UniProtKB/TrEMBL annotation:
The keyword Transmembrane applies. It holds the Pfam family SBF. It is a multi-pass membrane protein. This is Bile acid:sodium symporter family protein. It is found in: Membrane. Keywords: Membrane, Transmembrane, Transmembrane helix.
Length: 336
């Protein structure tokens, strides 16, 4: 007897908010980049604000964290550890390989590698939710990859990018501590101390995060507008390859480890989506505006590709023939 078709479920409020986030956010970033490209002279003096703006984004991420998020890491150390290793092996390795194979100029090569060495992008949680993936695992891997970034990103960048440009790993570590770790932990502490009050503003955090990231992209693009026309095609090719291969290899890592389809979907986005806002900030501070180009393009592209892949995955049945469980996102907030 044939199995009756599965009746589609009505979208929830979280579904609608998540879809809005990953639809509007890329458009906002594209518009910001267009403004920076069209009128760069109006924004080139804003560069010193980049670390502060990134700090705002990371503080809002910290505000979304709860004790349950940290306890979830302890409950699934194997899966979280695998996601962490896959993220910091696959993406840095791909960055170096793509930069080498494409023969990228030193500034662009260092920028691509730096994107690969960055922690997970916070938008990965949202697209995992839309893909009916394991949201709890996604949040855990994104949180841990962010917390360990000061210890992992600088030495990896030094190892892989030093042949292209001089890398000051010590100064980079200090910047990550100031712009990532301290704001995230600060936001988490505020959430623990004043959870009732923070709960009242959680709905406003996605808009604040999206607007802040758009300004970040505006500044980065305006700082390198004169170079974009010459290198746009090459940078876009590198970014599409980097992101696409990261998504595919992340999913493959989860399947090879027998984590199941929902967890493998989470792995795909935790590996393939990066905190490109951090990469842009570090590239601007330690290399050059040209080195920040890959991060600026990645910031737009990985949200577009992530939303598209999530939509495709959400229509594919789970192992039992029913859609894979989605859970609920800790925060429907787009990220760099």
């Amino acid at each position: 007897m044939p199995t009756p078709p599965i009746a589609p479920t009505a979208p929830t409020a979280a579904d609608r908010t998540a879809r809005l986030a990953v639809t509007v956010f890329p458009l906002l970033v594209v518009a910001a980049g267009g403004v920076g490209l069209a009128a760069p002279s109006h924004f080139t003096g804003w560069a010193p604000a980049v670390p502060w703006l990134l700090g705002v984004v990371m503080f809002t991420m910290g505000l979304t964290l709860t004790g349950d998020d940290f306890r979830a890491v302890a409950k699934r150390p194997w899966a979280v550890g695998l996601g962490l290793v896959a993220h910091y092996v696959i993406m840095p390795g791909l960055g170096w390989l793509i930069a080498t194979v494409l023969g990228l100029p030193p500034q662009l090569a260092a920028g691509v590698i730096l994107v690969g060495c960055a922690p997970s992008g916070t938008a990965s949680n949202v697209v995992t939710y839309l893909a009916r993936g394991d949201v709890a695992l996604s949040v855990s891997v994104a949180t841990v990859s962010t917390l360990v970034a000061p210890l992992v990103t600088p030495p990896l960048t030094l190892l892989l990018a030093d042949r292209f440009l001089d890398v000051d790993a010590g100064a980079m570590l200090t910047d990550i501590l100031k712009t990532v770790l301290v704001p995230v932990l600060g936001g988490a502490l505020v959430r623990m101390a004043a959870g009732r009050w923070v709960g009242k503003v959680l709905r406003a955090l996605p808009a604040l995060s999206a607007l802040t990231i758009a300004v970040l992209v505006l500044i980065v693009v305006s700082g390198s507008a004169s170079r974009i026309k010459d290198a746009a095609g090459l940078v876009l090719l590198a970014v599409v390859l980097h992101n696409g291969l990261g998504l595919a290899l992340g999913y493959a890592a989860g399947r090879l480890a027998r984590l199941g389809r929902p967890a493998s979907r989470a792995m795909a986005f935790e590996v393939g989506m990066q905190n490109s806002g951090l990469a842009a900030s570090l590239a601007t501070a330690h290399f050059s505006p040209a080195a920040a180009l890959p991060a600026a393009v990645f910031s737009v592209w990985h949200n577009v590709s992530g939303a598209a892949v999530a939509a495709w995955m959400s229509r594919r049945p789970g192992p039992s023939g029913s859609p894979s469980p989605a859970g609920s996102p800790a925060s429907v907030s787009p990220g760099p």
